[in-house]
Amino acid sequence: MKKILLILFTIHCSLFTASAQCGIENTAFKSGEMLEYDLYFNWQFIWVKVGTAEMDTKMTTFEGKDAWKSYLITRGNNRLDKYFLMRDTLLSYCNPDLSPLYFRKGAREGDRYYIDEIWYSYPNDYCQLKKHRVDADGEQHWKTSTYKSCIYDMMSIFLRARNFDASKMKKHQTIPMPVSDARSLTNSWLEYRGKENFKMNGTKEKFRCLVFSFYERENNKSHELIRFYITDDQNHIPVRLDMFLSFGSAKAFLKSYTGVRSPMTSKIK
Known about the structure:
By secondary structure, the protein is mainly beta.
């Protein structure tokens, strides 16, 4: 569920260019934005709250230069801990134009703990990723990969993608979305499904939303991993996520949002 929750933030990715011109103008968020989510799992036909997630974004510095710092933390509650321990922290630094600089994921899943890291550089208009992984048994792996196209991780793609103009998309249009971790590059894409209204869980707030599905191809089969609903305004905030897991179904609902950049014009009164 954690992998899917993190992938959920890739909701507005555009086609990547042939060279590593990976920046984009930021019009969607400002320093100090905080998003909080409640996580639910379908347990014997009953939806049970199993944890929370929060994402914070602010302007800071990285290696002495201005940079966006963003982190995502997912935590299982005591009810989930009885069956499966979940503690994930993701960290990302990006240039002011949102091109990625560094990514780190520390994940505790059950009795396993592993670390993924990626350092980005852009020699001769290529996108180069220096990857480092520490397995649960402590074994370390290093790999460097170079691409002609821009490659992102599960955090930096979120910041870039929120600035994509989805109003120009047609229903059922698909967009390729190359996302890497320290092991491999995923063959994944996004499909636009149209617009729907959504009432936030436990509140009276109702939003006009754009609906997307995220697909991944593995072992010569395509799978819908997540269907998500994002505000149809300049902020492009995910408010609901339906996750299709190999062992069941899960959902995430936006609990609160603070420090947003633009008025929430998608809110229905």
